[in-house]
Amino acid sequence: MKLAYEVILPPDGSADNSLSPIIFLHGRMNSRKTWNKFAPEIAKRTKREVYIYDARNHGDSPWSDEMDLDVLVHDLEELMNDFDIEKAILIGHSMGGKTALTFALKKPEAVEQLIVEDMDTKDYTKTAKDKQIGKLYLLKESLTAIPPNADESMARKAIMKFLQEKLNLGQERVKKNSIYNLDEIPIKKKGNSYVWQANMDVLEETFLKNKFDKKLSGVYNGKSLFLYGKNSFFDVENDEDINKFFPQAIKIGIEDCGLDYYFLFAYAYLKQSFLKETKMKLAYEVILPREGNQSLPPIIFLHGRLDSRKTWKKFAPEIARKTGREVYMYDARNHGESPWSDEMTFDAITDDLEEFMSDHDIEKAILIGHSLGGRTAMTFALRKPEAVEKLIVEDMDTKNYSSISRRTIQQIIVLLRHSLSSIPPKADEMTAKKAIVEFVKLKLAPAQIQLKERGIYDLDTIPIKKEGDSYVWQANLDVLEDMLMTDKVNQQLSGVYSGEALFLYGKESFFDVENDEDINKYFPLATKVGIEGAGHLIHQDFPNEFLQHITNFILK
């Protein structure tokens, strides 16, 4: 089957050949044209080659009486072989989504990432079949609306008007459906009339003879996104088998959306829900013990919001010495010396941790995370429990951020912004940090000042740097505030981590770890330890207690 296809390169023609290409698979009754507006933009943003092709019995590809899921998967495999593609990111809608997920289960080593738009793992329900057959009949009937001697543009407009009236869709709804994008309507002129560029009879037979019903088997352990319309007749949301076949699957439901041709993917891509433009190269340090056992998994520290890896510099060498393990500490994206990015979600920073471990050939580690880093560590442990020897979380619960938590952190962001104005002209770095400390002392209540043994007053850990004639925070405050004030800060956890876990919390903190019953639901072996008089910054305010609890837990 020699399929019709196109290859799209980034605008400058220089795709990164070290990166796997992206392959789009369209849905039933559509063609590769449906991806025309996405493919160039995605090639540009990801620096990857993008392939779009017409499935058999669609578009400009050959017709065939043989039409089932197995042959579509075989066609994809042959396409990849023809172009020497060993591994690809697959993006499929509806029929293309079922083809992509079946291929990923058959040849997981050939799929870097999987994106499925509005398709579940089940056999077609009677409702789904009836609706799809109804759509076929409607599309056949729409050709009768084309006036005699119409040119192609006029013919497409007539079809669009017919479908709008038949489906009783308002203008706003129409704008969301790319079947109303004239360029994408797959028709062509044959003689004196127009026909659909799809083998309608064969496609109808696939439903009548259940040719797309197939028992799936296998497991795909790569990253996968299942994007679905909450009004669709495909019940992705309640399909529990998705996580059975695709353990790392993320589901994203779009409100007020059904089987909306490619509006779903446009929404997710523009929000940067899944694909990342480039790999995040994080700034890091490694501390080696003087004497140790290299067979022991290393320790990875993850700092909190508005902090940097510097916050661990007094602990890391001591913990390396006492445990005999390598210790890694890195700056999260939008913090310290690591790159900035508009994409700031728990999925993104958890992906960063996974990539960091992969880059350093770390198969298993002990994770120690504070606040934002604690939530990252939890999310990773639930996602890849086999990669975590022990989990230590400092002052973070499993709940969504409360209004008190959001307000408190936002006040800190405002305080940090204003603190820069207290730095005198031409101050050196130490003078600048001292000015920030004095400013913060004036703004904090006396009880908060007395609470701190070190805290923000440890000058070495204050993450500022000089830019030109002034100082700036080494944190992307705008993006971090946006994360805080939107749903990006909230994430529903899933899974179970059955390893040992320590939840260390401050009894005066605004995070209610003590009463969070879900901790033991997700982490059955979790131990909670509360520190009297401590707030959110235990490692800064009570460094000796923090160090003692951490080392005892690791060594036990």
TrEMBL record:
Any single Gene Ontology cellular-component annotation: mitochondrion
Boundaries of every AB hydrolase-1 domain copy: 21-258, 297-393
Database matches in SUPFAM superfamilies: alpha/beta-Hydrolases
InterPro entries: AB_hydrolase_1, AB_hydrolase_fold
Reactions performed catalytically: a 1,3-diacyl-sn-glycerol + H2O = a 1-acyl-sn-glycerol + a fatty acid + H(+); 1-octadecanoyl-2-(4Z,7Z,10Z,13Z,16Z,19Z-docosahexaenoyl)-sn-glycerol + H2O = 2-(4Z,7Z,10Z,13Z,16Z,19Z-docosahexaenoyl)-glycerol + octadecanoate + H(+); 1-octadecanoyl-2-(5Z,8Z,11Z,14Z-eicosatetraenoyl)-sn-glycerol + H2O = 2-(5Z,8Z,11Z,14Z-eicosatetraenoyl)-glycerol + octadecanoate + H(+); a 1,2-diacyl-sn-glycerol + H2O = a 2-acylglycerol + a fatty acid + H(+)
Keyword annotations from UniProtKB, A to Z: Hydrolase
GO molecular function terms listed in the Swiss-Prot or TrEMBL record: carboxylic ester hydrolase activity
Matches recorded under Pfam families: Abhydrolase_1
Catalytic activity, EC: 3.1.1.116
Root EC class: hydrolase
Similarity comment text for this entry: Belongs to the AB hydrolase superfamily.
Protein name: sn-1-specific diacylglycerol lipase ABHD11
Organism: Nephila pilipes (Giant wood spider)
